Amino acid sequence: RGPVVVLDGPAGSGKSTVAKLLARALGVPHLDTGAIYRAVAYHMDSKGIPPEDSELLLRELEVTRVEVSQGFVRVNGEDVTREIRTPHVDSIVSHYAAIPAVRRALLGLQREQARDGIVAEGRDMASVVFPDADVKVFLTASPEERARRRHLERLSKGEDSDYQQVLRQVEERDRLDSQRECSPLKVDEGALVFDTTGLSVDEVVLALEKEVRS
Ligand code: C5P
Q: Which protein residue has the closest C-alpha to ligand 1 atom 2?
């Protein structure tokens, strides 16, 4: 089987772009675990189930089936790949992701994807989901740089974007993801910390590929 490589890091650290290219270079699948949390948040929110309503949430979790394959995400058979990438989902996802039962329910799905090796990205890849990964990386960049990347990405898709608002959202999501009790975003002991501020995507991918092959 191929290597198991994990990338953790805050919103906008370049994880997704880097993880996709690195997976291609290594010939293993790519797993975006943020998409799984987004799909659950989108689904619950569409059903009118707020993160505070733990009873309803638990009941709905039992009948919620998330599938990921080749860049697509489905919930109970419905393709939600596009719907999960909105500023609204950005603003609600961390509240659902902080709930232990949600995280527990998604553990098996994430681990199953690594049978043939994987490049998996998220927040708790190294600490919880794949503690025995072959290579653990923590990608980071300054909040301003991360907000700038998000902002430019939205503009390039023809979407409205306000830099100051994106920066505030990025900082709020960082705060929620790193201060929650269950599986917070943090640097794992065995992780290589990689600051991508000012580096091109290619430079980061090349450096990581070298690290995996060494
Ligand atoms: O990576 P992305 O920004 O799409 O992740 C969306 C949200 O999903 C994060 O802000 C975080 O709240 C949650 N998440 C998580 N654990 C992961 C991946 C994502 O809690 N492994």
A: 34
